[in-house]
Amino acid sequence: MQIGILALQGAVREHARHIEICGHTPKLIKRIEDLDGIEGLVLPGGESTTMRRLMDLYGFTEVLRESDLPMYGTCAGLILLAENIVGYEEGHLNKMNITVERNSFGRQVDSFEADLDVLGIENHVNAIFIRAPHIVAVGDNVEVLSEVEGRIVAVRQDNHLGISFHPELTNDIKIMNYFIEEIIMKNAH
Q1: What is the radius of gyration, based on Cα positions, of the chain?
Q2: Do 96 and 142 touch, CB atoms closer than 8 A?
Q3: Choosing from 18, 24, 134, 168, which is the catalytic residue?
Q4: Is the pLDDT assigned to residue 89 strictly greater than 90?
Q5: 62-88 per-position pLDDT tens digit
Q6: How many CB atoms lie within 10 A of CB 42?
Q7: How far is CA 11 from CA 5, 6, 169, 173, in A?
Q8: Which of 179, 156, 172, 167 is nearest to 127 (CA)?
Q9: Residue 185: how many CA atoms within 13 Å on its side-chain side?
Q10: Which pLDDT belongs to residue 34?
Q11: Dihedral sign computed on CA atoms, order 49, 44, 41, 141
Q12: For residue 107, what pLDDT is reported?
């Protein structure tokens, strides 16, 4: 199965490695035409403002807003999926009925690692938080999958998965495997 990674900016190689370890083929998405033939799309961590601008510039915003592709966003990718972002008028892709606060765990120097319990995944997930957002509020049909320090850091809504942290910077493939097996494969047409 081919799984796309929006390759405009961010932790692209690391997600590609996780897709390969899970036994599937990563496809780097740099142009709209690259979306053809993929079963799901990863929106990697990076800098959300830069990613928004590049998505607008290359025509991805409207196409992805209309798309029914399963999507998985990490850190900046989570921000792109949200309907509301604290301090901004609106979200970008508006795929998840959530409100996200950017950099809510502090600056780069405040980065930390944690072993998280994630609903639907056996054993702890190794999570790295770097200038991470958190989910301040969830709407209807949003399932909270994990929290850290009383803050929501992983959610699922329909065929979309959003997390605040960076499992792709570890050797822990459980979140990618969850996206592939529980979201893509169970929602296949």
Answers
A1: 15
A2: yes
A3: 168
A4: no
A5: 999 999 999 999 988 999 999 988 887
A6: 30
A7: 9, 10, 8, 15
A8: 167
A9: 10
A10: 97
A11: negative
A12: 59
Active site residue 182: no
Report the phi/psi class of residue 23: left, alpha or beta, with left for phi > 0 and alpha for psi in -120 to 50: left
Q: What is the pLDDT of residue 129?
A: 87
Burial class, 46, CB count within 10 angstroms (exposed 0-12 / middle 13-18 / buried 19+): buried
Whether 75 is catalytic: yes
Model pLDDT, residue 125? 93
Contact assessment for residue 9 and residue 47, using Cβ atoms and an 8 Å cutoff: yes
Number of other CB atoms surrounding residue 54 within 10 Å? 17
Catalytic residue among 15, 39, 75, 134: 75
18 flagged as catalytic: no
- Output the CA torsion sign for 122, 81, 62, 57: negative
Q: Where are the strands (E) in the chain, listed by range? A: 2-6, 25-29, 40-43, 71-74, 82-85, 96-101, 112-116, 125-129, 134-138, 143-148, 151-157, 160-163
pLDDT of residue 45: 86
